[in-house]
User: Fold this.
Amino acid sequence: MMPVKKYTLLDGIDSPADLRKLPVESLPELCDEIRAFLIEQLSNNPGHFASSMGAVEITVALHYVFDTPDDRIVWDVGHQAYPHKLLTGRRESFSGNRKMGGLSGFPTPDESGYDTFTAGHASNSISAALGMSVAARLSGNTKRRAVAVIGDASISGGLAFEGLNNAANTPNNLLIVLNDNDMSIDRNVGSLHSYLAHINTSRRYNSLRYKTYNFMRRHKLITENGRGLVLRFNNALKALLGGSQNIFEGLNIRYFGPFDGHDVCKLVKVFRDIRDMDGPKILHLRTVKGKGYAPAEADPANWHAPGKFDPVSGQRVSGKCDIPKFQDVFGNALLEFAQKDSRIVAVTAAMPTGTSISTMQEAVPDRVFDVGISEGHAVTFAGGLAKEGLLPVVGIYSSFLQRAYDHIIHDVAIQGLPVVFAIDRAGLVGEDGVTHHGTYDMAYLNAIPGITIAAPSTATQLRNLLFTALSSANGPFAIRYPRGNADDFPAEGDPQILTPGKGRLVTDGNDAVVLSIGPIASEVIRAVETLADEGITVAHYDMIYLKPVDQYILHQACSKGVPVITVEDGSIIGGLNSVTAAWMKANSAEVPLYAIGIPDVFVRQGTIGQLRRQCGMDSEAIAATIKKAIQTEKKINSK
Assistant:
């Protein structure tokens, strides 16, 4: 449904070409309209709010000055790109943002030619934009420009530094726009953040250098042909004014700024001044996350993705549930155990609130380490902690952990180090879509020797599994759990050891066997209850562990001589079905095996309920698959 409000300028922009017809003096008003549109839309259809509110002027100025889509803009952490979507032909369809069949919440090339690169995670923009710039030169397109817009602390990621390191070694015209807002999702941490704050105190030097450089270039006292001369000019001016060494210029990348990232008219001028300069350059812009909406400016962390809210009062719709979230069960259990064992420490990669490690952080801050957006470092750092006798717990989202795969193998598993991986957002995550679904962790971890992989079906199991992992201290231990609420409250009293490789029988039956792992068990339970009403009895086992798998349960399941169906909230390839099939082959178990889980496709956005139905993982589809398996085998046997 289209918004009721009318937007005098925004309603007339269906592409950046329309934007460029406006006089520059109209751009501040357009920015106000974009913010009003975002507030109106996102208050009712939730999405990433504060980051996009803070990037409005940058987006408008970029599309105003650069010839998009021929010029390439690569967004880092794509949740700052909503204004970009509004200006590139998706304003009228924005009400479908993050909905099934609608717009993705992140830039995706499948959706628009203006989306040059997938941008669901962080720190990849510099490398991708550098590749585009070099490709343009190699193809003889000397006019095409490439821009990387990196924000929300993504500059601290290791991949970003690899891109910076390489940028000056290859001919290119890359422009890096650093959207510096002091935030990732939580507050920025680390020495780079402190360094950027120090640069901000050097405004006199930076401003005078920029003005002097432009004056000399206009009067042809300095040219673009000699980049070494340009940098020597910068160094001479720096020495004259007492400026400090700049890390970016030390990497042979020209630095401009810092400028006010909310002065759109100034940004247009600056972009025009530096647009055609040859060689890599970085433009440092200071912005406010949540700009233009007071509640978001005051609390940008909680307004990163606030859910529904009243656009006038800023009152957020709580949507609270009496049942706890899995992440909060984890956070509370972690603190409970850490208070009893001083060896327990926690590591997070810029996500203390998102993983609920903040619960421990508030109580024992000296034993919690937020390492910023650097998942690989987080894992190797945890390996170092473990090597010296501590018990590190790495709280991390499933899709983010993918970025640290080699570190898990090389720096933890090979050495058998007792690092606990608390893998949040495992399985289908809903509206964040294809870049954020945690559907591959069981498959990619299962190939690693010596690792234990578990998935609780209940909150009680999650607490017990964390206790088990911290009690064993015997090699890496991964616990995967989903976004959202559990179906129960964690049991009180002393936690229990859940023996690795031992599952549990949920219900018994003789017509079919279902093996499930993780909270998808709740869908199986409903399916089994439905079938029982029809006189069909199904044995349901909650496996708990993928590795080591419960071989006794597999033997019991196959000995019934009825169809076996595996159900998992993850990739069928490499997960529970693959493990079961391998065991059956090794043990010559000749019973039919069926699979329910994520097929060999990338799943787009939608509610978790919609996506489960789409993948045949809801209770109705599970019941239908079980009935079909039983009927198929009866027909085969009757022949």
Summary: Residues 454 and 512 are 24 Å apart (CA to CA). The first strand starts at residue 72 and ends at 75.
